[in-house]
Amino acid sequence: MRQSQGELRLAGWPWPHAWDELAGLSSRWGGHMTRGTRHGGPYLMSSSSSASRLHGKGRVLIPLTPQEEAKCPSVSVEAFLNSTLTTHLLPALYSVVLLVGLPTNALACWVLVANFRRCSSTLFLLNLASADLLFVLLLPFKISYHLLGNHWVFGDYLCRTTMAFFYGNMYSSILFLTCIGLERYISVVHPFLWKGSSWMWGKVCVCVGIWLVVGLGMSPLLFHSQIRHISSLNITTCHDVLGKDKHMFLAYYFLSLVGVGFGLPFVLMTISYSCILVRLLAKGRQHRQLVCVLALVFLVFILCFTPSNVLLFIHYMLEAKGCHNVTYKWYIMALVLSAFNNCFDPFVYFYVSKDFRGWVRDAMSCCSGRLKTSSGRASEKTALPLRSSDSSSLRSRMTK
Fold first, then answer.
1. Torsion angle (degrees, nearest 10) of CA 153, 154, 157, 162
2. Any idea what DSSP says for residue 50?
3. Would the keyword Membrane turn up in this protein's UniProt record (predicted)?
């Protein structure tokens, strides 16, 4: 940590605690450092005195009155990085996502690829399963980071790549879920609007466009350093603590990400699924099961992605008014809930489909058939010498 700047901030979101703990930490440093907060999160500030606690509005630090302190609480960076929440609960929850999401999404990708020629309408589903699988494959790095006490040991470039893929795959999943909803809307409400090979090529272009847009949107995370050494804890954080100079950029960046990556897809999903449900309900009770499935799909989307994005948006909107919002602890828990969407997708989108369940049964029967065939061939190979020896002994007896 450079003493000339001496500032650390959390990447976008603060967490709740009391101001009196900050005073204790400040006195413990013996006046060499003071604890302050600023627009975007708490940070460490080099100082020769620790008499006043400061709150930042934008890049300007201003003193707070006791009344303002009561409305704008904060907590130390060290307290959060050493908390049970980050070192025990988070890795445990991400481990559940890894153990469930890895086999289910891998099976989904395998089955969808094997049956793509039979049903080309699964293109969006295949891209969704691929995005979920990529997300799950990166979780071991994040799990090890939290288990080591929020200490990153894999270098700056892998930290950048991990965070870019972490957020990129989450928002690409949202966009592909939106495409699936729009495709279902067209097939139900406007069944003769787009058909044939032109529609297929259109979907290919949409998928390529989504990956390009997501890659471009995640490029700032790749081009800026995401690690910071915390000398008081002797750890190196990845993305959790960043310099004050990056705050304004991150504020505009994440607000844009929420608007384009979640706000617009949420509106499109709401409109498309509402129209589908209204159309199906008007046709009578014969589509009751389909209505329940679509309602479940939309509910999972809302529960998984709305909390984290809404908390992020509220945080920056409140900080624009000069008050330090207390949302970080809830945000990281909501982010784990977003990660659990990778476990829900295979069951909600794939395994509730009769066609997909049939493909899985065909794949399993094919594998079991191959195993039986290979075991049968092996038994034949071991039995052949016995038969040949028996026949030769029989011939020798006949000649005698």
1. -100
2. -
3. yes
Are 195 and 282 a contacting pair, CB within 8 Å?
no
Closest listed residue to residue 267, CA positions, set 181, 187, 168, 170: 181
- Chain-centroid distance of CA 151 in Å reads 20
Taking the C-alpha atoms of residue 204 and residue 212, their distance in angstroms, rounded to an integer, is: 12
CA distance 79 to 73: 14
Q: What angle do CA 344, 345, 349 make, to 5 degrees?
A: 125
pLDDT band at 385 (very low <50, low <70, confident <90, very high): very low
CB 33 within 8 A of CB 76: no
- Ranges assigned E (strand) in 212-271: 227-230, 235-238, 241-242
Measure the CA–CA gap between 179 and 183, rounded to whole angstroms.
Answer: 6
- Mean of pLDDT values over 123-145: 91
The separation between the first and the last C-alpha atoms of the chain, rounded to the nearest angstrom, is 97
Query: What tokens were used for 351?
Result: 């395994």
Model confidence at 124, pLDDT cuts 50, 70, 90, reads confident
User: Which one, of 119, 154, 128, 130, lies nearest residue 140 by Cα?
Assistant: 154
Cα separation of 366 and 356, whole Å?
15
Cα separation, 150 vs 138, whole angstroms: 16
Confirm or reject CATH 1.20.1070.10 for domain 79-359, answering yes or no: yes
Lowest mean pLDDT among 121-125, 201-205, 227-231, 321-325: 321-325
What single-letter amino acid sits at 52? S
Report CA torsion sign: 287, 292, 296, 298: positive
Domain boundaries, the chain: 9-77, 79-359
Q: Using DSSP, how many helices (H) and how many strands (E) does the chain show?
A: 14, 8
Among the ranges 88-97, 307-316, 340-349, 368-377, which has the highest mean pLDDT value? 88-97
